[in-house]
Write a structure and sequence with these properties.
heterodimer, A: 354 residues, mainly alpha, 2 domains, two-stranded antiparallel ribbon, 6% strand, globular, B: 283 residues, alpha/beta, Rossmann fold, 10 strands, 35% helix, binds adenosine-5'-diphosphate, binds magnesium ion
Chain lengths: 354, 283
C-alpha cells in the first residue's frame, strides 16, 4: 500500500487504468460464462465496438491531450484500418486458418497502412504552427470516405483485382469479393472477439503509457507546452509531433480492423465526420491526457445510445443533455486548459517571440 | 556579399573593440557577430551589430526598452533569420542552421517572458534540457529495454545535480508552472545549462527578483561560468548586476551599438548617459 502511495503520479494513474480494464474484462467474462442471459443482448453486441472505440479514444487522446494538436478526421484512419485489415483477413482465410493469428496479422497491416497515411498527412502539416492539422484531417476523413465508397476489390487464384467507380473485376473460380463499393465489406466470418478487443486495448495502453513516460513522451509534451522553448533546447518539434500523430493513426488503424472484423457488414459511411467528432467527445469528456477518463467515457458513451433506445425520437436530445450534465458535474478542468492553451497560442502568434 | 570562411578566425583579425578577458587571449572567440542586422517590414530592429565574446567571458548587452536586445538573442538562436550579416559560433558560420541545430552547436538561452514547460515537473524540465544527451530511442522507451532504465537513472542524477546549483532539488516534483517567479527564472537557466552549451544567453535574468535574490543570482552566474567554463551573454537592466559581473559590455540603442567597453568605460561614456537619460538641455 505504501509503495502505491509513494509512486509517481503518472505510474499510479497507469496502474489504475490497467486495473480498471482488466477488472472490467474479468467481470464481463464471468457474467457471460455463469449468468443466464450473459451481459444482456444489447451489451453483448456492443462488446467489440466498445473495445474499438476505447482504442480510438486512447489514440486520439495521444494527439489531442498529449501532443496538443487537433484531429477532426480520426475516423478516416479507422476506416483505412477497417477496410485494409478486413480485406487481408478475408484474403488470408484459407492460408492462415488460425483465427486469432489472422486477426493479429490483419490488425498489424491495418495499423501500418493507417500509420503510413498519418505520416503522409503529417509531413506537410506538422511543420506548420497553427490549427492546420484540424482542417487537413477534416478534409482527409471526407476524402477517405468518398474514395472507399468507390473501391471494388476482389481476390482470386491470380491475385488481387482492383477497380474504381464501377465493378469491373472478373473473379475466377473460388474468388472472393473483398470490398464492394457502396455496399462495403460483407464479412461472414466475424473473427474479432471480445478477448481480441481486450488485448488490443491493453496493447494501446502499454504503447501510450510507455511512450508518454519516456524521453520521447517528454519531448512530445514539451513541444505542446512551448514550441519555441522546446526548439531552444534542441528538440525538433515537428519530429515529436509526427511520432505522436503516426502512433495515434496506427492505433486507430488497428482499432478499425478490430471493429470491421467484428461486424457482419460495414460501409465507408460508418466512418464519417460524426464518428470523428464522437471520438473527440470521448476524449474531451474523459479529460485531455487522462487515459482512464478516455476508457470510461468511450465505453459509457458507446453503450448509452443503445440504452437510450426507449426514448425513441428524443434519444439524441437526451444524449446531448447527458453530455452537458457530465461536463458540468466534472467541471472538466482539462477542457478549460485546452481552451486557454489555444488562446495562448493565438496571443503568441500575434506577439512573436520575445 | 562574400561568405566568411569556416576556419576559426584569429582574434587579432576580429574588428572588435570588445575587451576579451586576459585568459581568453590567443584563443578564437566563441561568438562573433559581423554586420548582423534584421528588418521587420520597414523597421530595422538591429543594424550593423558587431560583437565578439571570449570563451569564458561574461558579457553584457544593455540598452533602453525596445533597443533590439531580445531581437539580437532571437537572431543568434535563429528564432529569426538575419536579413544581413554573419554569426560565427566557434568559428562556424550558422547561416544555414535552425534553432534546434544552433542549440546542438552550443548556444542555449533563457527568455525575457519565461517559457517553461508549465505542465511538466521541474525535474522533467531539466531532463528536457538533457534530451539530446540521453542515449535511448523511442522503441527502448516503449519496450522498457535496459538502456531506458540506465539512461533515465543517469538523467535523473544529472538533473538533480544541475538543480542543486540553485538549491532547487527539493522542488523537483512540482510543476514548473506552479513555481514562484524567481524560481522559474532560475529553472530556465538550469534547463539551458543542461543542454551543455558553450555560450549561454540570459535575457533579463534578474527581472522581478528582489535585491537579495539578485545578489545570489550574480554569485551563481559567476559560479556557472567558473565551473562550466562557458561564455555568458546577458541582457539586464539591473546595473549593479551588469557592472558587477560583466567583463565586457555593449550598449544598444535603436538597434545600433553606441558604445562598447569595460564597465568603467561604459559608466562614464557620455553617449551612453545621453541614451539612458536623454540629451541634457543647454540652459
Ligand atoms: N517579430 C517582430 N515583428 C516586428 N517588430 C518586432 C518583432 N520583434 C521585435 N520587433 C521590434 O523590434 C524592436 C526591438 O524589440 P526588442 O528586441 O524586443 O527590444 P528590447 O529587448 O531591447 O527591449 C521593437 O521596436 C519591437 O517592436
Ligand atoms: Mg527584451
Amino acid at each position: 500500500m505504501n509503495r502505491i502511495l509513494h509512486m509517481k503520479k503518472s505510474t499510479r494513474s497507469s496502474l489504475f487504468t490497467y486495473t480498471l480494464v482488466i477488472v472490467a474484462y474479468v467481470v464481463i467474462q464471468l457474467l457471460r460464462a455463469f449468468r443466464e442471459g450473459g451481459v444482456g443482448s444489447v451489451l453483448e453486441g456492443q462488446l467489440v465496438p466498445i473495445c474499438a472505440y476505447v482504442t480510438m479514444a486512447l489514440a486520439l487522446n495521444l494527439v489531442v491531450g498529449v501532443s496538443g494538436e487537433l484531429s477532426l478526421g480520426h475516423a478516416g484512419f479507422m476506416s483505412i484500418g477497417a477496410f485494409a485489415g478486413c480485406s487481408v483477413a478475408a484474403a488470408l482465410q484459407n492460408t492462415v486458418t488460425l483465427d486469432p493469428l489472422r486477426l493479429a496479422l490483419s490488425m498489424v497491416l491495418g495499423a501500418v497502412i493507417a500509420g503510413f497515411f498519418g505520416f503522409l498527412i503529417g509531413v506537410p502539416v506538422l511543420r506548420l504552427n497553427g490549427d492546420y492539422l484540424a482542417i487537413v484531417t477534416l478534409a482527409f476523413g471526407e476524402i477517405i470516405k468518398s474514395l472507399v465508397t468507390n473501391i471494388y476489390l476482389g481476390v482470386d487464384a491470380d491475385g488481387p483485382q482492383f477497380s474504381f467507380l464501377s465493378n469491373n473485376n472478373q473473379l475466377g473460380e473460388g474468388g472472393i469479393e473483398l470490398i464492394r463499393g457502396p455496399v462495403g465489406v460483407t464479412n461472414s466470418e466475424r473473427i474479432a472477439t471480445f478477448t481480441a478487443g481486450f488485448v488490443l486495448v491493453l496493447v494501446a495502453l502499454f504503447i501510450i503509457f510507455n511512450l508518454v513516460n519516456s524521453r520521447t513522451g517528454r519531448a512530445i509534451m514539451a513541444a505542446r507546452d512551448n514550441r519555441i522553448a522546446a526548439e531552444s533546447v534542441g528538440i525538433s518539434v515537428t519530429k515529436y509531433k509526427m511520432i505522436a500523430f503516426v502512433t495515434s493513426a496506427a492505433l486507430a488503424g488497428a482499432a478499425g480492423t478490430l471493429y470491421g472484423c467484428g461486424q457482419v457488414t460495414f460501409t465507408a459511411t460508418k466512418f464519417d465526420f460524426n464518428t470523428s467528432i464522437l471520438i473527440l467527445v470521448f476524449v474531451v469528456l474523459g479529460g485531455l491526457g487522462n487515459m482512464w477518463g478516455s476508457v470510461i467515457a468511450a465505453a459509457a458513451l458507446t453503450i448509452l445510445p443503445e440504452a437510450l433506445r426507449q426514448f425513441a425520437d428524443y434519444r439524441m436530445l437526451v444524449y446531448a443533455i447527458v453530455l452537458i450534465l457530465v461536463m458540468l458535474a466534472t467541471n472538466n478542468p482539462t477542457l478549460w486548459n485546452f481552451i486557454a492553451r489555444i488562446r495562448e497560442q493565438r496571443q503568441e502568434k500575434k506577439e512573436g517571440a520575445k | 556579399m562574400s561568405r566568411i570562411p569556416k576556419e576559426p578566425t584569429k582574434l587579432v583579425t576580429v574588428p572588435s573593440p570588445n575587451k576579451i578577458p586576459e585568459r581568453d587571449i590567443d584563443k578564437s572567440p566563441i561568438l562573433e557577430c559581423q554586420h548582423l542586422g534584421i528588418d521587420f517590414g520597414g523597421l530595422s530592429a538591429v543594424k550593423d551589430f558587431n560583437m565578439a565574446i571570449g570563451r569564458t567571458e561574461i558579457a553584457g548587452l544593455i540598452g533602453p526598452n525596445g533597443a533590439g536586445k531580445t531581437t539580437v538573442f532571437n537572431l543568434l538562436t535563429k528564432v529569426y533569420q538575419p536579413t544581413r550579416g554573419t554569426i560565427l559560433l566557434d568559428g562556424v558560420d550558422t547561416h544555414n542552421m535552425n534553432t534546434v541545430q544552433v542549440n546542438k552547436a552550443g548556444i542555449a538561452r533563457t527568455f525575457q517572458n519565461i517559457r517553461l514547460f508549465n505542465n511538466l515537473t521541474v525535474e522533467d524540465n531539466v531532463k528536457l534540457g538533457l534530451h539530446n544527451h540521453i542515449g535511448y530511442g523511442m522503441w527502448s522507451g516503449i519496450f522498457r529495454l535496459p538502456s531506458y532504465w540506465r539512461e533515465e537513472k543517469v538523467a535523473h542524477e544529472r538533473a538533480m545535480e544541475l538543480l542543486s546549483i540553485f538549491d532547487m532539488g527539493y522542488l523537483a516534483k512540482y510543476k514548473a508552472g506552479s513555481l514562484p517567479y524567481g524560481a522559474q527564472r532560475k529553472l530556465e537557466i538550469v534547463r539551458a545549462l543542461a543542454t551543455n552549451p558553450s555560450l549561454l544567453l540570459l535575457d533579463e535574468p534578474a527581472a522581478g527578483m528582489n535585491p537579495s535574490e539578485t545578489a545570489e543570482l550574480m554569485e551563481n552566474i559567476v559560479k556557472i561560468r567558473d565551473t562550466f567554463g562557458i561564455a555568458i551573454l546577458l541582457i539586464e537592466h539591473d546595473m549593479s548586476l551588469v557592472m558587477g559581473i560583466c567583463e565586457g559590455i555593449a550598449v544598444l540603442n535603436f538597434g545600433q551599438i553606441i558604445a562598447k567597453g569595460t564597465p568603467d568605460e561604459i559608466k562614464n561614456d557620455p553617449v551612453v548617459i545621453e541614451a539612458y537619460l536623454g540629451k541634457k538641455k543647454e540652459a
